[in-house]
Amino acid sequence: MVNVPEVTGFYEARTGSVQYVVADPETGKCAIIDPVLDYDEKSGATATIEADRILSFIADKGYEVQWILDTHPHADHFSAADYLRSKTGAPTAIGEKIVEVQNLWKDFYNWPDFPADGSQWDKLFAAGERFSVGNIPAHVMFSPGHTLASVTYVVGDAAFVHDTLFMPDSGTARADFPGGDAHVLWRSIQDILSLPDETRIFTGHDYCQGGREARWQSTVAKQRTTNIHLSQRPTEDEFVAVREARDRTLPMPKLILHALQININAGRLPEPEANGRRYLKIPLDLLQAPWK
């Protein structure tokens, strides 16, 4: 069927992330969504193991990469968008609200000269903007709440929601990052749940709830009726109360300060300094810690 893309998920266990290749089987054109650049915080080492795994899969399939898409600037891993762009020549894209996140975090990192205009990506999508993957129609839904810039990519019958929704047994995204808002998250979720019931939902993380194997595919109908943060809390106020209470118990992601400086720059690593090495910048006492 023309509106049913082939979707392959690549689970990255270190951060619980799911990366996607979504392809039009008729034309062989594909998009890569939310690719991970490997980073080991203990050693400071970077690698391209995950991105090369995706490239190998694409080569084996004979696909042509048409897009490299990020759903938002990630707080728990580095984006491999820039690396994959260098390897494939495909354009990178993200939602146009990335400029709001850039302007917020450039101050946190004390980068007065950082170009907070989204120019690091080849394309900034507006809410509702239409594009295609091969012959499969696609569009962009603005899905803030988890971050200011989060979007959902709807490609045929598949919606890539990243952190907005998890698998039903794991609930929904946290909304306590700088720029996050649980009320806004609720409204974004309602927009996603207004898609047809049979729409396939692909999440960007899974933490293997209860020790089960990793999963990342559900449907709108399944999310609406069984998501633990939604099915028993039918009103916005009930959802927000539970979401905010839960967020108060969560530590910040261990890589948030490492990752945002990379991801607001479209996955580009810092330029080498005079000695040829690259350095991250970590602001102290910016975020709260749960000391108890």
Gist of the model:
With 292 residues, the chain is an alpha/beta fold. It has helices at 49-61, 81-88, 98-108, 182-193, 220-226, 236-247, 256-263; strands at residues 6-12, 17-23, 29-33, 36-40, 45-47, 64-69, 78-79, 92-95, 123-125, 130-133, 136-142, 151-155, 158-162, 200-203, 217-219. Helix 4 (182-193) crosses helix 6.
Task: Describe this structure as you would to a colleague.
Helix content is 24%, strand content 24%. It has 292 residues and is an alpha/beta fold. Strands 1-2-3-6-8-9 form a 6-stranded mixed β-sheet, with helices on one face. Strands 10-11-12-13-14-15 form a 6-stranded mixed β-sheet. Strand 2 and strand 3 form a beta hairpin. The longest helix is centred in the N-terminal third of the chain and has 13 residues, at 49-61. The chain is globular, with a radius of gyration of 18 Å.
Biggest sheet, spatial arrangement of strands: 1-2-3-6-8-9
What is the chains' assembly state? single chain
Distance between the termini: 54 Å
Mean pLDDT: 96
Helix content: 10-25%
What is the H/E string?
A: EEEEEHEEHEHEEEEEHEEHHH
Secondary structure class reads alpha/beta
Rg estimate, integer Å: 18 Å
Strand proportion: 15-25%
**Please, how many helices?**
7
Topology:
Layout: E1 6-12, E2 17-23, E3 29-33, E4 36-40, E5 45-47, H1 49-61, E6 64-69, E7 78-79, H2 81-88, E8 92-95, H3 98-108, E9 123-125, E10 130-133, E11 136-142, E12 151-155, E13 158-162, H4 182-193, E14 200-203, E15 217-219, H5 220-226, H6 236-247, H7 256-263
Parallel strand pairs: 3-6, 6-8, 8-9, 13-14
Antiparallel strand pairs: 1-2, 2-3, 4-5, 4-7, 10-11, 11-12, 12-13, 14-15
Helix pairs in contact: 4-6
